[in-house]
Write a structure and sequence with these properties.
The complex is a heterodimer of chains A (111) and B (115). Chain A has no helices and 11 strands. Chain A is mainly β and 111 residues long. Classes of the chains: A mainly beta (111), B mainly beta (115).
Chain lengths: 111, 115
């Protein structure tokens, strides 16, 4: 039982490049989330999903897109990376009764 | 504007003593509060939570206190152990969101427990 798995663990992008962060959970959770963590700001919600095929905007959605084609996977896309998107990205999942279970994060640097 | 604030960036305590981490919030619609613990290079892990209908919740060495009138909560760790050294995040949700996972996090407090 791996829990929440994020790939890649590290990535360096140049401004304007695109990439997709992958999140997979094996706990059959309905809800999935993408957060970013920046120094001095805690974690902020980017997008979330309340079930397969659904997505919704969180607190800081601009510059990101998401997809939830399968229940176990939640993808976060950056179409044109900017230095302001340098951050640590955490994926999380939960069911209706549990707290959030987080992955170990993806550290992204945009130069 | 930061709706959840942890005003102490760091805290250092001696092993065996009490650690008290504090958190303030501004949104009176918050009705569910959580504490997460984070080690370097790992994701946050859930520690303890409290609903606004309670003023205290205890789980082993960890107790969370909620003062709704002051919009303040605190996490007490007794006794503190070196393995407790980590970053602690306070988080809140509420209004229509309930416990949906749409959390507002504080900035975190780094706890160091010295042997």
């Amino acid at each position: 039982n791996a829990g929440v798995t994020q790939t890649p663990k590290f990535r360096v992008l140049k401004t304007g490049q695109s990439m997709t962060l992958l999140c997979a959970q094996d706990m059959n959770h309905e809800y999935m989330y993408w957060y970013r963590q920046d120094p001095g700001m805690g974690l902020r919600l980017i997008h979330y999903s309340v079930g397969e095929g659904t997505t919704a905007k969180g607190e800081v959605p601009d510059g990101y897109n998401v997809s939830r084609l399968k229940k176990q996977n939640f993808l976060l896309g950056l179409e044109s990376a900017a230095p302001s998107q340098t951050s640590v990205y955490f994926c999380a999942s939960k069911d209706s009764h549990s707290p959030l279970h987080f992955g170990n994060g993806t550290r992204l640097t945009v130069t | 504007d930061q709706q959840v604030k942890q005003n102490s960036p760091s805290l250092s305590v001696q092993e065996g003593r009490i650690s008290i981490l504090n958190c303030d919030y501004t949104n009176s619609m918050f009705d569910y509060f959580l504490w997460y613990k984070k080690y370097p290079a790992e994701g946050p892990t859930f520690l303890i939570s409290i609903s606004s209908i309670k003023d205290k919740n205890e789980d082993g060495r960890f107790t969370v206190f909620l003062n709704k009138s002051a919009k303040h909560l605190s996490l007490h760790i007794v006794p503190s152990q070196p393995g407790d050294s980590a970053v602690y995040f306070c988080a809140a949700s509420g209004g229509l969101t309930g416990n949906t996972g749409k959390l507002i996090f504080g900035q975190g407090t780094t706890l160091q427990v010295k042997p």
